[in-house]
Amino acid sequence: MAQHSWGTTFSGRSPATPSEPTAGHRLLSLDIVLALLALAGGLRVLYLAAPSPALPAEAANVAHAYALGHFTPFTDAGGAGVSPFGWWQLSAYTMVSDAFGRSATALAAVRETMLVAAVAGAVLLWVLARRLGLTRWASAAAVVLLAASPLALGLQRLVVVEDLAVVWALGALVLVTRPDARIRHDIYAAVCLLAAVLTSPLALFFLPAAGWLLVRRAPVRAALVAVLLNLGLGIAFGPAAGVLRPHLAAAGRPSVADWVALDPAWAVLSTFALVAALAVTSLRPFAVSGLLLAATLAVPGVPHTAVLALLLPVTPLLLAGVVQAVLRQRAPAHRGEAARRPGKGVVLAAVVLVAIVAAGWAYGYPALRPTTDRGGPLADAQEWLRANASGSRVLVDDAAWAELAKAGWPTGMLVPPAACAAACPPAEWAVFADDATDLRRAYPAIEAAFANSGATAVFGTGPAVKITVSRLGLPPADPAAPSEASARAHAGEALQASARITFAPDAAAVLRAGRVDPRLIATIAALAALEPVRVAAFPEVPGEDPAGQPRRRVLLTGGEDGAAAFYTGQRDLFRPSSVARTGGGVLVTYPLFAPPGLLVPFSSP
After folding, report:
1. Contacts of 105 (CB under 8 A, 6+ apart)
2. Could you write out the DSSP letters of every residue in 131-194?
3. Residue 270: its H or E element
4. What DSSP string runs through 307-342?
5. What is the pLDDT of residues 153-166, one digit of tens each?
6. Better-predicted residue by pLDDT, 15 or 280
7. DSSP per residue over 451-503, as a string?
8. Contact 186, 221 (CB under 8 A)
9. With contact defined as beta carbons under 8 Å apart, do 391 and 411 qualify?
10. pLDDT for the residue 447
């Protein structure tokens, strides 16, 4: 094993000789670590809001974190797994850091926790690599592979409890490989392993590596750690199972193929590293645990995203260790500082490795599609509801529950899908992603709640990001009634023929298409009987055009005093919700849902 500035290696070799500039080495190591942290943290901030791949279970984890931190009950729709200890960790960070208060959305607040976990994991990976005898450059290469891989960027931004579990597992391995470990360090390692398993059951696959390393170092200490760990697991999975026992999320997309598409080089190099590391004594325990984890990808029902989250830091460590071992076998033995400087073989290996990785990353980075939009469709839907349905009871999916609760909507007025096991509580509105197709199948009561409903606003594009706001409890449609859209179009054509009304070209097109609220058509006609009218636009209310709702706003220019007084004086059905003077004219807005039958034949003024 190589000697390095962290003291004796795990193999028990002596520390650096007195002639070596130990303080200088440590400063160099600190500089490298800080640079690696800047790389890992900076890239994750950039890709924090990347929209895909998306994980359905992420919304439930965010909602649980919010509910725990705000002492409010929440039951998810199912399939997201159970990790009370993981949720407590997420909630604890958001409470201490006031992440919900600082972030634009609940999702961004909890994803910030994952960013911190990823940076902590990078530090632990560096320390573990050094304690296993890897040189500074090999250790740095392992961290760079983890920090900059598109697969890691895409996965570690998600609110997945396995990203927390792997930090606990790395912490335990760092303690186990401490050269001068005392009993207290082994106790700390047992606690970290227990925390990892309570966060995700898949962390059990790190136990072979930890046990192997402990037995290799001190069999008696290994027995102590085993006793403590078994005692903790016995309590957690026995008397305290109701509040501590974790369960994996249901298998589903993204699959391993979806993730590997972001970084094909990771799959190839990881497979090579897991097998080749079996031939390196110091890496063999990690290779065994890694292979056991990788084997679970073939087990039906195991979520691939969870497995890959735990594998992520293992394979770069193995790859760097294998490359270093191969180069040392081929290079002549030299002593002193020169042996620790990167030689031609190291440089050549680095060039080849960079070329392979760059080829895979050339596709992965563009596929992540970083975005500066920290709000997204759910934030837009929340703003629309605040303006049009404030105080109403809303049927929501898990993601909408967290966002509306963070925005101040009373949680007692939010109906999650789990409340619809038998029958949905009465609700006026519904907010669901992708029209709630999967949830309707899982909860038939939701289908009944949507029996008389209509899409009122749609935000986002594509099934993965489309949010639909629906009005529930609408009166059944009369199939014999004339089409409302055709009545609006006919009345709009008559209105456009008036010589006393001037329409901007875009406004005229909207009017002819029958996309203008009948209250606007009727009041514009009445206003034109009093004075000439100029219509600059029928501005869209964001989200309502995709849902097929008529335009219920008009921007009037010229004669603004008379127009403002006219609309302010309207009563009953024709009273606007707001009349505002803007830089472009008078903006008149009507509330949702014009009563039927308002349009009657009238003569052009």
Report:
1. 374, 375, 376, 378, 379, 403, 406
2. HTT--HHHHHHHHHHHHH-HHHHHHHTS--HHHHHHHHHHHHHHHHT-TT--HHHHHHHHHHHH
3. helix 264-276
4. HHHHHTTHHHHHHHHHHHHHHHHHSPP--SGGGGS-
5. 989 989 999 999 99
6. 280
7. TTEEEEEEESSSTTT-EEEEEESPPPP-TTSPPHHHHHHHHHHHHHT-TTEEE
8. yes
9. no
10. 84
The order of strands in the sheet holding 429-433 is 414-415, 394-396, 429-433, 467-472, 453-459
Beta bridge partners of 501: 533
State how far Cα 190 lies from the chain centre. 31
* Separation of alpha carbons 317 and 320, rounded Å: 5
The tokens of 401 are what?
């529950």
Distance, CA of 378 to chain centre: 13
Spatial distance between the Cα atoms of 78 and 158, rounded to a whole number of angstroms: 18
Q: Which of 203, 145, 218, 147 is nearest to 172 (CA)?
A: 203
Each residue of 354-402: pLDDT tens digit? Answer: 777 777 777 778 777 776 666 678 888 999 999 999 889 999 988 899 9
Distance between CA atoms of 305 and 292, rounded to whole angstroms? 16
Q: What is the Cα–Cα distance from 600 to 503, expressed in whole angstroms?
A: 22
pTM metric for this prediction = 0.85
Two structure tokens written together for 1: 């094993």
d(CA 111, CA 90): 9
Distance (Å) of CA 134 to CA 3, 137, 214, 330, 332? 9, 8, 19, 16, 18
Q: Is 247 helix (H, G, I), strand (E, B) or coil?
A: strand
Residue 517 backbone dihedrals phi, psi, to 5 degrees? -55, 135
Q: What is the mean pLDDT of residues 252-263?
A: 87
Give the contacts of 506 (CB within 8 A, at least 6 positions apart): 537
Residue 274 near residue 290 (C-beta atoms within 8 A)? yes
For 559-573, write each residue's pLDDT tens digit: 889 999 999 999 988
Decide: 250 and 81 in contact? Cβ < 8 Å.
yes
Locus of tokens 């960079």: 354
Give pLDDT tens digits for 21-60.
476 666 777 777 788 888 888 888 887 776 666 787 888 9
**Sheet (strand 501-503) strand order:** 501-503, 533-537, 553-557, 585-589, 578-582
315-328 pLDDT per residue, tens: 999 999 998 998 88
| Average pLDDT in the chain | 85
Lowest mean pLDDT among 17-21, 93-97, 212-216, 393-397: 17-21
